Amino acid sequence: MKKIITLLLIFAPIWAFSQTSSVLEVYIQEGLKQNLGLKQERLEIEKSVENINQAKSNFMPKVTFSPTYSLAAGGRRLEFPIGDLLNPVYSTLNQLTKSSNFPQVENVNQQLAPNNFHDTKLSFQYPIFNTDIRYNLLIQRDLVSAQEAKKRVLENEIRYTITIAYLQYLQTLEAQKIYQVSRSLLTDFVKLNEKLVSNNVATKDVVYSAEYEVSKLDQQVAILDKNRQSVQVFLNYLMNRNFSTEIIADTNLVNSYTGISTSSTQAQEDALTNRQELSQLRTNIKVSETAIKLQQMNSIRPQAFVGGNVGFQGFGYTFKNQAYLVTQIGLSWDLYHGYEKKSKIQQAKIQKNILDTKLEEVKQQIQLQVLQAYFELEAAKKSLITTQDGTKKAEKYFKIVQSRYRNGQAIMIEYLRASDEIITARLQESVAKYDILVKQAVLAKVGAVK
Question: Of 104, 142, 258, 430, which sits with the fewest C-beta atoms within 10 Å of its C-beta?
Answer without folding.
Answer: 258
